[in-house]
Amino acid sequence: MSTNGEQHRWNLLNCLDWDKKIPKVAALARIKRDISNLLKDPPPGIFIAPEPDDITKIHALVVGPLDTPYQGGFFYFILRCPPD
C-alpha cells in the first residue's frame, strides 16, 4: 500500500493506535506481575521474553505438547498488551 508515493510496510511490533498512548500505571503493574509469575513458574513448554525497552511487547514460544497434533512443533507469537 502506498500513499503519496511512500511505501508502508506492516510491522507486527507496532500498532499506531496503541503506540501513541502511554500505558497506564495499573496496566504496567499488571504486565510486570504477569511476566514475573510466568518467568518464576512457567507452564510446561511455554517460554516468554518481553522486549527490553517495552514490556507491553512480549515474545512467546510454545512447544507442541506430546501426543497432540502439535507435537514437535515450535510456535512463535508476539503478544501486544493494550495501554489500558
UniProtKB/TrEMBL annotation:
Family matches, as SUPFAM superfamilies: UBC-like
Coiled-coil features, chain-numbered ranges? none
Which stretches make up the UBC core domain? 26-84
Q: What domain of life is recorded for the organism?
A: Eukaryota
**Annotated Pfam families:** UQ_con (PF00179)
Q: What is the name of this protein?
A: UBC core domain-containing protein
Origin organism of this chain? Rotaria sordida
Q: What is the lineage of its organism?
A: Eukaryota, Metazoa, Spiralia, Gnathifera, Rotifera
